[in-house]
Amino acid sequence: MPRTAAPLAHDEDHWRAIARQFDIDPGPINLENGYFGRMTRKVAEEYQHNIQWVNRSNSVHVRQRFEQIEALQIRGQLAALLEAPENAVALTRCASDALQSLIRNYNRLQPGDQVLLSDLEYDTVKSAMRWLARHRGVEVIEIEHQHPASFDSLVDTYTSAFERYPRLKLMPLTYVTHRSGLVMPVQAIAAAAREHQVDIILDGAHALGQIEFDLPQLGIAFAGFNLHKWIGAPLSLGFIYIHPERLEDIDPDMGEFHFPTDDIRARTPYSTPNIPALMTLPLVFEEHRAMGGSAAKGARLNYLRATWTEAVRETPGIEILTPKDPRLCCAISALRFTRHADQQALVERLLRDYNLFAVTRTGAGFGPCIRITPGLVTPLEHIQCLIRALGELANQ
Predict the structure, then answer these.
(1) How many domains does the chain have?
(2) Which CATH number covers residue 201?
(3) Partners of 319 in the β-ladder
(4) Measured distance between the N- and C-terminal CA atoms of the chain, rounded to whole angstroms
């Protein structure tokens, strides 16, 4: 009988076998797996093979087969992975491209309307929303979330904003915040937004591959995702999602004409894509499922995250910025050393003294932090190294 994701998360032998599917250079222990994910050895080899094949065959293969057959098959497989209609998805270079397309082409805004922006959104999304103020004549309402956050405080912050600003029409919402890994209660926030006729554009960049979700059940009509983080695809792959019933609310991108106006692919810029990378996706999806999909990956990553956060949560001099509530957690988490103003200096100490690579993040209301992100190849002993390092640094 197949083992469920929860007990499998603790099985170091199982995950060592998974790790052996990847090529890893010697060097610092990587605890910055949130930037982008590794391809397995097999996917990397397939990618190289595809580069050589496309280079040899050039436009003959691309025009005769890829554009007419393979690209459509890949799109269908992506839709199946998401359990969405095929006409609800279109491939892009990344989540940011998808989100920018949705924001600039959302056509239900009028001068004088308001859009909502929180401190936890991705910087590219923040700049795109502020662009709307200059080019659409809307007012940007900026809010800051309470820290420490709770499920109820996150929902209440949005509900209060909806009630206070009745001209609100649109807001981005990051499913997994890139600074601290906080998982937003999307379904509850979307329900409150719907009551106040506020549309949500969901930033799913870090969610796909580590969180199981159903977009219609969440109440989301517009979203952008990455395929190069937790799914395991080559860099430069993402996609846009628009519920088919809401397609008319997003204009074709800058008058895009290569596809009919009732085709979601007209909502993204038309350009020559990374064809060899796209050709790896059938294998990427196959391997994702073979590893147990988002359920198994998410359980493992949450186990590693919980191991280190709970080991140091009560340590004097350390503040864990991600709540304990399992509904609000994923692979990514963050901390700060409360006795030190310069968090970057501590990141440098982690690397120099303990061979642990992490990064700082700024821009949220809670201030600078150190982001820690284990990956699928991270063994428990690397997490134990982190725990020891944090304990020692906290006492200095």
Answers:
(1) 2
(2) 3.40.640.10
(3) 336
(4) 50
According to DSSP, residue 69 is labeled: I
Does the structure show a pLDDT above 60 at 345? yes
- Together in a domain, 219 and 273: yes
Judgement on whether residues 271 and 297 belong to the same structural domain of the protein = no
Residue 385 maps to a domain: yes
Q: Which domain holds residue 302?
A: 5-39+293-394
Helix axes 95-105 and 123-136, enclosed angle (nearest 10) = 20
Nearest CA among 282, 273, 285, 280 for reference residue 62: 273
Cis peptide upstream of residue 326 (ω within 30 degrees of 0)? no
CB 90 within 8 A of CB 273: no
For residue 3, what pLDDT is reported? 61
Choose the final residue of a domain: 236, 252, 286: 286
Q: Is residue 44 part of a domain?
A: no
Q: Are residues 191 and 309 in the same domain?
A: no
**Residue 61: its pLDDT value, please?**
84
Which residue is listed with tokens 């009560």? 314
What 8-state DSSP symbol labels residue 115?
A: E
Asked if 151 and 224 sit in the same domain, the reply is yes
* pLDDT of 2 higher than 90: no
pLDDT in tens, 284-330: 999 999 999 999 999 999 999 999 999 999 999 999 999 999 999 99
Q: Say whether pLDDT at 79 is over 60.
A: yes
Confidence band, pLDDT 50/70/90 cuts, at residue 1: very low
Task: Please answer whether residues 5 and 212 qualify as being in contact, where contact means their C-beta atoms are separated by less than 8 angstroms.
Answer: no
Read off the pTM.
Answer: 0.95
> Bridge-partner residues for 320, per DSSP?
335
Angle at 36 between CA 35 and CA 37, to 5 degrees: 135
CA-wise closest residue to 89 among 77, 80, 98, 79: 79
Domain for residue 182, yes or no? yes
d(CA 278, CA 127): 29
Whether residue 161 is found in the same domain as residue 277:
yes
Burial of 222 (0-12, 13-18, 19+ CB in 10 A): buried
